[in-house]
Design brief:
The complex is a heterodimer of chains A (129) and B (226).
Chain A lengths: L2 H29 L6 H14 L5 H13 L1 H10 L5 H40 L4
Chain B lengths: L1 H23 L7 H16 L3 H13 L1 H6 L2 H6 L1 H5 L2 H25 L4 H7 L6 H11 L3 H25 L5 H23 L1 H29 L1
Helix pairs in contact in B: 1-2, 1-3, 7-8, 7-11, 7-12, 8-10, 9-10, 9-12, 10-11, 11-12
The chains are: A mainly alpha (129), B mainly alpha (226).
């Protein structure tokens, strides 16, 4: 088997391993009726597995990078559903854009401003190690 | 079955073209998420194929969002040393940010007379998409609208956010990471990653914590309002 072939197989294996964590997370979320979605439960499980050295970073790193790199692809089908909502957009489009902008500005200023004060103060009290 | 496979493969091929195009000419309007979505809508409209038919193949891509979110555990793990010291600040920022985002969405929505389903679809706009979808579905919002609002917020946030924070003299990597990711979720965190690795690490953690906190807080706010 060529090295290229082996690299491709290991990449696919890594993606499958990550998908297993997501699926287990999904099962846990469903069966215990958790408020947390399955993919976040999967994230926590994978994090714990890395921390406990059950899974090594090199066993999932490249697969994870691939998934994150091509993530926009996974958004396309859900997003293209907007084609069924042209009438809605004509009626509410402007309001929605306004809300998105106003709410985002409030959120950004509110959270970042306070955290900025706190973070600077922490750096002054206990200088960076 | 063959049809579903056709739409699935077509989407992947067009994505690869769009991705290569973005590599060559990286601009906001050449982002694959925009160009590829526009291309798919165009193809569906021209061929008269409904979105529901398209989804017989497309749903498999939507399902892969789950593993993609789970994969964030890896960068989160490798950069954990950057964020450990500021864990309380990040946590507080997430609680403040998510509370402002959710309440302002629903209040503005009521004020501007959006319908109930639209308002519910808009509520999780600052939460990373797969989580936003499940929040929206559980409360009775429309999935497609939620996806659109989440993307819209992500674009607005990651484009305007960095400049706005610089203008407001918000310079610390912790506050910049929290600010950007608390509005623009995964797109904000990815943007932060390209600006500064520590800021990106904060952004990733913020994204995850926001998803967790919003999943818990949203049902309470909805029950209170409706």
């Amino acid at each position: 088997m060529s090295t290229k072939m082996r690299a491709l197989l290991s990449l696919i294996g890594q993606v499958i391993l990550i998908t297993c964590f997501a699926t287990i997370g999904e099962l846990i979320s469903k069966s215990f009726d958790l408020a947390l979605p399955g993919n976040i439960v999967g994230l926590l499980l994978l994090y714990l597995a890395l921390k406990a050295k059950i899974v090594q970073v090199k066993h999932v790193e490249r697969g994870g990078r691939l998934l994150l790199l091509i993530m926009p692809l996974f958004f396309v089908p859900a997003l293209s559903g907007i084609m069924d909502y042209t009438a809605f957009l004509r009626q509410y489009g402007l309001q929605v854009v306004l809300i998105v902008i106003m709410s985002s500005l409030l959120t950004l200023v509110g959270s970042a401003y306070i955290v900025d004060r706190l973070a600077h103060r922490k750096d002054e009290v206990t200088p960076r190690d | 079955m063959i049809k579903a496979l056709f739409w699935l493969i077509l989407t992947i091929v067009i994505f690869l073209i769009g991705f290569a195009g973005y590599r060559r000419y990286p601009r906001v309007w050449t982002l694959p998420i925009l160009t590829v979505t526009a291309a798919m809508i165009l193809i569906l409209s021209l061929t008269g194929v409904s979105h529901a038919t398209y989804m017989t193949g497309g749903q498999y891509l939507t399902k892969m969002l789950g593993p993609a979110i789970t994969a964030f555990a890896i960068p989160l793990y490798t950069v954990r040393h950057h964020v450990r010291r500021f864990l309380p600040e990040i946590g507080l920022g997430v609680v403040i940010g998510t509370s402002i985002a959710l309440t302002s969405d629903i209040l503005f929505g009521l004020l501007l007379h959006l319908g109930r389903t639209t308002n519910l679809a808009l509520l999780p706009k600052s939460v990373t998409l797969p989580v936003a979808l499940s929040i929206s579905e559980r409360s009775g919002g429309t999935a497609t609208l939620t996806a659109t609002f989440v993307l819209m917020t992500g674009l607005v946030g990651s484009l305007v956010g960095p400049r706005l924070m610089t203008g407001l003299k918000i310079r610390h990597f912790v506050s910049r990471g929290v600010g950007l990711a608390s509005i623009a979720h995964v797109m904000g965190a990815t943007k932060s990653m390209t600006l500064d690795q520590r800021e990106g690490a904060v952004g990733l953690l913020t994204m995850v914590l926001t998803a967790i906190f919003a999943s818990i807080l949203a049902p309470f706010i909805i029950r209170f309002i409706y």
